[in-house]
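Hi P.,

Sorry for the delay on this. The queue was packed all week, but I finally got your sequence through. Input first:
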Amino acid sequence: MITFWRVFKSGFRNTFRNAWLSSAATVIMAVTLLIMTFFAFSIIFVRSQLNEVQKKIDLTVFISDEAGEAQIKELQNKLLQVDGVESVQFVSKADALKRLEDSSEEGKKLAKSATDIGNPLPSSLEVKLAKLDDIGGVNKRIRDLPEAVIITETSFDSRDDNRKGVIENVIKISNGVTRVGAVLSVVFLLIALMIIFNTIRMAIFTRREEIEIMKLVGATKWFVRGPFIVEGSMYGVFGATIATITLVPIGRVAGQFLTDKFNAGSTVAYFGTNFWLIVLCMYGLGILIGALSSWLAISRHLKL
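Then the structure:
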């Protein structure tokens, strides 16, 4: 325990011997951790938005006004048996009018006009799909049902459903964010590794006489190498501390903006709930990067 404390104390003290190199290593480490955290948030945000859009995917089947309640119920039961259909919800003429009224100010005006002429809005069945790509196939299978005689049209028939394009665009954005995030994270990770590697290399050269004396008095390999591992790890600790302090105000401002403008409340709440876990991961990653860089440096430049 005493030996471990001496190794830790020596490594901690050595962190401050070369202020400029230590500052550069710490800043790069902080930037690297912030970039990784930012792109992790971006990926989760984009994918959560994709899931939200996918949840709203449906195929609307419009029903003839002449259809009876029994016919509609029978069609609804048959739709539930169609491959690729997850759920079916009936929307009456009154429900359709209420939705139009609640949609916007313009919707209220249209709903009033529709009420004045006897509510021409049709009743419908909203079909939730398992996969968006199968919307054409599901539409065809529904059209082939004998019970489909009461269907006037579907949203797929009228080509007014552009959600497939929305999904494809969100998927492209998600993939793009993932690729850019991965590339930038790797680039800054390599920069952090190289800077800490060179910092430890310089420390080894600077303290070569001290190392020789330690070898002459019988110091173990661990006692000689340990302080450099601790020194590299401290860059990770300091970098994670700076990243955490920076992340708090940025997170508050950006979180409010994203919630107001992009409805990212669920993603912001997720990061807020798991804030200390994220901080712990940053410290763990920082220490790992620092220790790995130090180990590479002493393996190459410290021959014992």
